Amino acid sequence: MAGTDDGAVAAADDALYVLTAVLLTPAQFPSVLGDDYPEACATLGLAPRGDGYGLVLGQDGDGARWTVVIDDVSLVAVAIASWDCGLEYELSPDEHAIVTALPGWPLAVAVAAPGVPAPHDPGPETADRPPLSPPDTSVWGPAQRRLGADEIASQWAAWRQQINDDEFAAPAGRAPVTEPPARAEENGEGAAGPSKGGHQGVRRVLAEARAYVDSPPPLGRVRSSFASGDARTLRADGPGWSMVARTDDIAFVLLDDEPGEVLPVGRGPELPGLLDALDKLAVRPL
């Protein structure tokens, strides 16, 4: 567990105006911070903790940005669920739950506390490390690729309805990550099986995903969440790639080497078995 900087905690805890909060757990973490849970923790200078953390983002009385890390994950989960339902909830963690306070925010926050100066990074006299800042998503790279996968997972129906299954019979065009794809990229059998046809990058992704079944990857690199019916939404990440899939449907692949492209993958004869195997080893929200 990361050591507590008492001075930073005192500075952040002095009238902290809470703006938002997020979970940092093996099953739920801001994917923009890393391909897996340990990497996301390392981005913040935290040791991976089995139960995870809650991140509370706010401003102090001078308007400075602070990220307060707490070990009371349930408290943050209840707050997020309440806010999502439009309910008020005062998130006030006990002092003993505070692990550390980090200057800055690791994620973009669109709101600001009323009655205090505009958000700004705290001065070096109150923090002994450089302030956190959101990853640069203005250019294509790992952070933008993972954000694109987040968008597909959250808007699955909108993306899926643009795909005509008949188009998996032959390779076709590609789609930008900012809009639902208009054409299918991969042949279902070639993408899921060992065929040498199809997109080389997609073949590499599927091969690396299969390797996860025999050699489990770092915690959080494969995650499973609820979907409609009996299906699950799968999210898998690896070096230079992200994959989003439904266990009863197709998959979408994004690559660092293919800026702005979304590559749909048909089910074929082997993809269903791969997705089922990944779902069995995936971490799930409590």
Summarize the structure.
The protein has 286 residues and is α+β, with helices and mostly antiparallel strands.
Give the count of structural domains: 2
| Rg for CA atoms | 21 Å
Low-confidence stretches: 1-13, 169-196
Distance between the termini: 22 Å
- What is the chain-wise order of helices and strands? HEHEEHEHHEHHEEEEEH
* Global outline: elongated
**From the helix content, strand content and strand pairing, which structural class follows?**
alpha+beta
Count of helical stretches: 8
Instruction: Strand order, main sheet: write it out.
Output: 5-10-9-8-7-6
Strand content: 15-25%
**Mean pLDDT over all positions:** 86
Total number of strands: 10
Approximate helicity band: 25-40%
Largest sheet: 6 strands, antiparallel
What does this structure look like?
By secondary structure, the chain is of the alpha+beta class. The protein has 2 domains: 6-126, no CATH class; 142-281, no CATH class. Helices cover 27% and strands 20% of the residues. The strands form 2 sheets. Strands 5-10-9-8-7-6 form a 6-stranded antiparallel β-sheet, sandwiched between helices. Strands 1-2-3-4 form a 4-stranded antiparallel β-sheet. The protein is elongated and about 60 Å long.
